[in-house]
């Protein structure tokens, strides 16, 4: 998602894959920024005598990610509401939309608690996503190292990079596919306004399966999987370039600050590039929801064409401002929560 936890020498490969897969699968700037910070923290922690075990890392990162997402949930819901506005709205009305106006509408019509619609599903999504990502990466890493003949060789930069990108991408695809129904249900719950069609998580699952079939839980999966590769590549390259440039100019700056800043900027770059895919994914997740007529009947690329034709190029970036606003608080909350949990968990004897 994701800010699942993975700092420690025990899980070097799994850490990177989880980091890469999280933001790629969900298009979240906060996830991308946080994962880069956590990756840097992992590298630093290799020198520490007291290290977290695998379960403790997953637990600390899962809690940090869930807490951060809960704190930034109002902005996340506004992003979703903006993303799906063009599906059944008059285009002329969309030009009047603003974050403040939409936030006021939610407060007046739905109440303050409505800003957290769908957040429980997001929290429930964290642990299975991190677990599947971790396990999948370990399996893919072994297969790739065996195929490349580098099982017992360290320091081969090209081979390590290939394992990181390919293994991370495949782990992201696997985890996104396995947990995708939860993401779709989250979108359906968060996109509801005054009319409540889905009364909760279980009711949403039951209703979707009954009305749209089991495949209805996987609407928009193609857009998600298409974003994995570009997200990893852009985030990784921007982060490494920014960090190298920063350290060459200001070598004495705090490693934590460099990681937070470069992680946030790489997340912004990655999510800006893949935001149109995220928008299309959200809209396809809502296709046929609540018995409404389908809007995009010609597949993924047909949806892109339809949106550009009816809403213009700006329509592909509807809702990106609240996504940007989550960056600093989101990454900062992950940092503070993770560091606090790490200190607490290091006091507990590891079973590893």
TrEMBL record:
UniProt keyword list: Membrane, Repeat, Transmembrane, Transport
Subcellular location: Membrane
Cellular component GO terms held in the UniProt record: membrane
Transport among keywords: yes
Gene Ontology biological-process annotations: transmembrane transport
InterPro entries, per the entry: MCP, MCP_dom_sf, MCP_transmembrane
Principal localisation: membrane
Cited Pfam families: Mito_carr
Membrane topology reported for the UniProt record: Multi-pass membrane protein
Segments annotated as Solcar repeats: 52-143, 159-245, 254-344
Superkingdom of source: Eukaryota
Similarity comment: Belongs to the mitochondrial carrier (TC 2.A.29) family.
The protein, known as: SOLUTE CARRIER FAMILY 25
């Amino acid at each position: 998602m994701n800010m699942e936890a993975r700092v420690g020498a025990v899980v070097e490969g799994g850490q990177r894959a989880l980091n890469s897969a999280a933001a790629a699968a969900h298009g979240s700037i906060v996830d991308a920024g946080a994962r880069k910070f956590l990756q840097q923290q992992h590298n630093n922690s290799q020198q520490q005598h007291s290290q977290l075990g695998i379960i403790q890392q997953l637990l600390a990162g899962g809690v940090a990610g869930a807490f951060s997402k809960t704190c930034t949930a109002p902005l996340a819901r506004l992003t979703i509401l903006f993303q799906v506005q063009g599906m059944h709205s008059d285009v002329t009305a969309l030009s009047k939309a603003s974050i403040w106006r939409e936030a006021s509408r939610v407060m007046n019509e739905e109440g303050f608690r409505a800003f957290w619609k769908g957040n429980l599903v997001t929290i429930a999504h964290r642990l299975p996503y991190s677990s599947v990502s971790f396990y999948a990466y370990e399996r893919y890493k072994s297969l790739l190292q065996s195929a490349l003949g580098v099982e017992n060789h360290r320091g081969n930069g090209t081979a390590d990079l290939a394992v990181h990108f390919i293994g991370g991408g495949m782990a992201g695809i696997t985890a996104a596919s396995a947990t995708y129904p939860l993401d779709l249900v989250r979108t359906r719950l968060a996109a509801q306004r005054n009319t409540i069609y889905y009364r909760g998580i279980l009711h949403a699952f039951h209703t979707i399966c009954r009305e749209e079939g089991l495949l209805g839980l996987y609407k928009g999966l193609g857009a998600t999987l298409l974003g994995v590769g570009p997200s990893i590549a852009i985030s990784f390259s921007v982060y490494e370039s920014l960090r190298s440039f920063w350290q060459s100019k200001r070598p004495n700056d705090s490693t934590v600050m460099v990681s937070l800043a470069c992680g946030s900027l790489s997340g912004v770059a990655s999510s800006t590039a893949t935001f149109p895919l995220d928008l299309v994914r959200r809209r396809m997740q809502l296709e046929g929801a609540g018995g409404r007529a389908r809007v995009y009947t010609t597949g993924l690329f047909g949806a892109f064409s339809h949106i550009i034709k009816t809403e213009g190029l700006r329509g592909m970036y509807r809702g990106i401002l609240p996504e940007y606003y989550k960056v600093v608080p989101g990454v900062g909350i992950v940092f503070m929560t993770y560091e606090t949990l790490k200190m607490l968990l290091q006091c507990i004897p590891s079973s590893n």
